[in-house]
Amino acid sequence: MKPENVAEETIHAYLLRVQEKLRDLPRAQVAEILTELRSHILDRASLANAGITAATVHQALDRLGPAEDLAEMYLTENLLETAGTTRSPWLVMRTLFRLALNSAWALGIFFVSLIGYLVAIGFLVCAVAKPLYPTHVGLWWNTQSHTPVGLGFIWPEPLEREVLGWWIIPVGLSLCGLMFFLTTRFARWNMRRMRRSRGAYSAKHGAGATWWSSARSLR
Q1: For 71-76, which contacts have Cβ atoms below 8 Å and span 24 or more sequence positions?
Q2: Any residues with CB less than 8 A from the CB of 160 and at least 6 apart, and which?
Q3: Distance between CA atoms of 94 and 111, rounded to whole angstroms?
Q4: I need a labelling partner for 54 at 20 to 30 A (CA). Which of 32, 64, 136, 151 fits?
Q5: Coil, helix or strand for 117?
Q6: Cβ contact 11:41 at 8 Å
Q7: In Å, how far are 17, 37, 39, 49, 121 from 32, measured between CA atoms?
């Protein structure tokens, strides 16, 4: 097999591995990514005086890193871009979970956001459960110690009194919506910061410094 054919087969095999990992993305987006990668690989491989050979192609691919890692970067970048504008808590948490596997910053944001969404769900449950268990759901107050007992579903003691009554329904729904809104805004703001931080790292260290910066330089 001619050297140029070997080089072409090497590039083709690499791109196929990237394509396989990107199968969940839209076809047009995958095609654009593969075209950019192919052009980048050929540009890198042609920098050597020997021209494009199997050896120069391997060098270019080594700079990009494993195909699976590069594809994972594109998937994460796509999620970050989408989650930065979405109002879907599911997509926000999915993106943060993916990032949390490799980032302590993202891990912290994931847990804070998880607590925020759980609190919102708690308010929703109180509002929905009040008509079903009116004597057990609400905001409880100890009339002897004059201290709050808690908000939610309890078996009240004789000295514990529910102070919100049926107002727990509109209050719970309002607080649920507010917590969902604030938690989503908090998570999206941090994800935009993480995205800018990754871009700044790429610009500082140049393509090839890491698998992220290598691929990011293609965008």
Answers
A1: 71/17, 71/18, 71/20, 71/21, 71/22, 72/21, 73/211, 73/212, 73/215, 73/216, 74/18, 74/22, 74/25, 74/33, 74/215, 75/21, 75/22, 75/24, 75/25
A2: 140, 141, 142, 143, 149, 154
A3: 12
A4: 32
A5: helix
A6: yes
A7: 15, 9, 11, 29, 40
- Please count the other Cβ atoms lying within 10 Å of the Cβ belonging to residue 49: 5
- Cβ(56)–Cβ(46) below 8 Å: yes
Residue that has been written with the tokens 């009194």 in this structure: 161
DSSP state of 93: H
Helix (H) or strand (E) holding 181: helix 168-205
Q: What backbone torsions phi and psi does residue 122 show, to the nearest 5 degrees? A: -60, -45
For residue 181, count other CB atoms closer than 10 A to its CB.
13
Rounded CA-CA distance 30/80 in Å is 17
84: which DSSP letter?
T
- What is the per-residue pLDDT across 126-153, written as a single tens digit (0 to 9) for each? 999 999 998 889 888 888 888 888 888 8
- Six-digit token pair at 157? 């003691």
pTM above 0.70, yes or no: no
For residue 21, which phi and psi values (nearest 5 degrees)?
Answer: -75, -25
